[in-house]
Amino acid sequence: MDLIIGAGISGLTYAAATTHDYLVLEAEQQIGGYCKTIYQDGFTWDYSGHFFHFQHPELRDYVMQRIDPDEMLTVQKHTQILYRDRHVDFPFQMNIHQLPQEEFIDCLYDLFTIPADAPADTFKQMLYAKFGRSIAEKFLIPYNTKLYATDLDRLDVDAMGRFFPYADREQIVRNFRQPEGRSYNATFLYPKQGCIRIVNSVASHVDQARISLGERLLSIDPDSHTAVTDKRTIHYDRLISTMPLPKLFDMCGIHYDKQVYTWNKVLVFNLGFDAKGPERTNCWLYIPESRYIFYRVGFYDNIIGQDRMSLYVEIGFGKDEAVPSAESLLERTLDDLRAAGIVTTQRLVAHQHVLMDPAYVHITRRSEADKQVMFDRLAQRDIYSIGRYGAWKYCSLEDNMHDAFTLARQL
Q: 312 forms bridges with which residues in the sheet?
């Protein structure tokens, strides 16, 4: 039997794909993991913004088998950066011509005078070596520092993989007159009823009798192939884990270097107001300046098409950083939303918050090397770790589904 830990998108996809007998364990009373959707006071909110930009047509077709096409929106992405009280199109490095003249000249000069021998051994060094000091320090470094809540010199050059919007000098200059709109998700799909519809579509392929909700895993004995929960002891042939990789090590009693695996936490406020706000076209805004507590604000009302402003607001914290009370953070968040001009006369009528811990894992050379050794050790004991946190990587929900299908075929 395959014992699958976690009824998020990765665990459910594996369960739907495997030809083996299986059992899915989920500690919560609801499937979905971080892909749950909240319905409150007429607002639709995810735990955080989850948007689907399928690169594999077969996965899109698989998901859409159980969803009425009328339920799914195809959204043309429009995103900007709130930079010093002006809006600059994203990505910043492709749109420096929208800056005030002096700042534009600074960016352009630095871009074309990057030293040929500039080091690029860390994520921060790569930003300087690829884009020059001005572009790096005006947006790329402050924004990503807020996002990851860590020193960017800790991160690997390729920490964001294909999700980082690379551009060479020729592309940047060409974009001054001929905007390319380059992005890995220039359009995306989003269900009118939130991302839980995607989860439910995948779950419809899973035998519901083989999903045990509200059952918390306590420990794993890799030698005897047993798992102890708060309800029973389960014998398995293979264990498929989607829990965060360090937690899997802890569950198995496997020693590992805790300094290798680090991450940030993100507090997400979902906020509903009584009227539309001034932002009527953006799907989300990037906020690099430290004077604002949040690094990104998303607009569900612009994505779904609603007549009241509906936001998700993301605030990053370090792995070991204490998170202040939600009440105090909400007050600060609302003050900053007003200071940024995102909220004007609108009145807050509904709110909810979620703490994502972990949120973004820190991809470093040490973690990449160590996890491959650990994956081999786990596989020798019939344990496989998948998903964003199980595989310890920066990826999309579609990537998680693809990896789950791939593992099911391999096994």
A: 270, 298
Distance in angstroms (rounded) separating the CA atoms of residues 26 and 14:
14
pTM of the model: 0.94
pLDDT higher than 60, residue 122 = yes
Condensed to tens digits (0 to 9), the pLDDT of residues 289-306 reads 999 999 999 999 999 999
Cβ burial 373-399 (10 Å sphere, 16+ → b, else e): ebbeebeebbbbbbbbbbbbbbbbbbb
Q: In the structure, what pLDDT confidence band is assigned to residue 182 with cuts at 50, 70 and 90?
A: low
Instruction: Give the pLDDT band (50/70/90) at residue 53.
Output: confident
Domains recognised in the chain with CATH numbers:
2-56+194-258+364-410 (3.50.50.60), 79-174 (1.10.3110), 264-356 (3.90.660.20)
Cα atoms found within 13 Å of the Cα of residue 302, Cβ hemisphere only:
19
- HSE on the CB side for 69, CA within 13 Å? 1
